[in-house]
Amino acid sequence: MLGTGVASSLAVMGRFASFLLLLGAASCGSRSALPLADGSPWVQPRDGRPDVPWILPVDQGPDRTRPPDLPRPDTRWTDPHRPPLPGSARCADGWCVIPAGSFSMGSPPWEGCRNWSDTLETQHTVTLTRDFEMSATEVTQGQYQGLMGKNPSAFTGCGVHCPVERVRWYEAVAYCNALSAKNGLPLCYSCTANSTSTSCYTAGAYAGQIYTCPGYRLPTEAEWEYAYRAGTKTAYYSGDNSSCTSTDANAGSIGWYDLNSNKTSHPAAQKKANAWGLYDLAGNAMEWTHDDCVKDLGPAAATNPAPQASSSAKVLKGGAWLSFARQLRAAYRTCGLPQTQSYLTGFRCVRSLNP
């Protein structure tokens, strides 16, 4: 266990590093960027406090000008588009089958702690027409080392069962490609690499239609949130949220975050799984998705969405061990440049199963 002084120093360093973490998010926001010492952009918080530990510069917490709370219906099981909840999770060998279906993506106006300005959470109906399988946990350090021959993680002392972190988006999709190659499946991404860097993009055969790739890949943002919710409509799959930045029992039951993590990552699958058998979608490591960063997905219904944008930033979901409780919500979304490397970010792979 870290000593009090070391833990405090790590917290301060982590919170400063979080400003540098995902600079692409600034391209999704509307406020002007200020230069940091290294020349990279940083967005001034509303209250002017540079030490507020937001995970991203673009995320300034709940808007103080938000409209009054609206009446709250019982939202947990009332979505007419939700698929029937399985009697038990369909998981084997570390992979869980996620059934095709429709859901309400984003958060309702009455949900506490939602974003009202930058990466918006506008609620809209999404339909996914293919079953897919998703890793039950974030890719671990042991899995990454075994397949890629290296371990970029900062928390190597946490062990082989802890999530791999400090993985760039490019390295995450390269891992998914390697997993496809290992299993004799087509590669969903085209990658080039040299001794110092890796660069990847969607393979030509699947450009604009990533759901048709039969190999392993990153989940789209819609797949990720659909899998997280597993039929629920509350802020967390464990229930409603009670706090934005303080202790939240429902957040703590499913994820490691700022107030229960001791400022470090933890071995996978120690918290409560959702109804589809997935662990650590909330907290521990923030997860890369396939999608380009789009500030507002809008209210229109969508089928098999995979937004493409002029911004090179990618969407991240789920929050991390240094996040506030509000960032563990299903609808929470933020963005980062694909070359970003941080001890807050990890990933998991998915694979489409049928037409």
Strand segment tally: 16
Report the CATH superfamily.
paralog of FGE (formylglycine-generating enzyme)
Here the CATH topology equals paralog of FGE (formylglycine-generating enzyme)
User: CATH class, please?
Assistant: Alpha Beta
Q: Count structural domains.
A: 1
Q: What is the H-and-E element order?
A: HEEEEEEEHHEEEHHEEEEEE
- SS-derived structural category: alpha+beta
Q: Report the β-strand fraction as a percent range.
A: 15-25%
Offer a few descriptive terms.
single chain, 355 residues, alpha+beta, paralog of FGE (formylglycine-generating enzyme), 5-stranded antiparallel beta sheet
Describe the structure.
This protein has helices at residues 4-21, 141-148, 169-182, 221-229, 249-254, and strands at residues 33-35, 41-43, 91-92, 95-98, 101-105, 124-128, 132-135, 189-193, 198-202, 216-217, 286-292, 302-303, 314-317, 333-336, 345-346, 350-352. It is an alpha+beta fold and 355 residues long. The chain has a single domain (94-352), classed as paralog of FGE (formylglycine-generating enzyme) (Alpha-Beta Complex). The strands form 5 sheets. The protein has a 5-stranded antiparallel sheet. Strand 1 and strand 2 (41-43) form a beta hairpin.
Provide a concise account of the structure shown.
The protein has 355 residues and is an alpha+beta fold. It has five helices and 16 strands. It has a single domain (94-352), classed as paralog of FGE (formylglycine-generating enzyme).
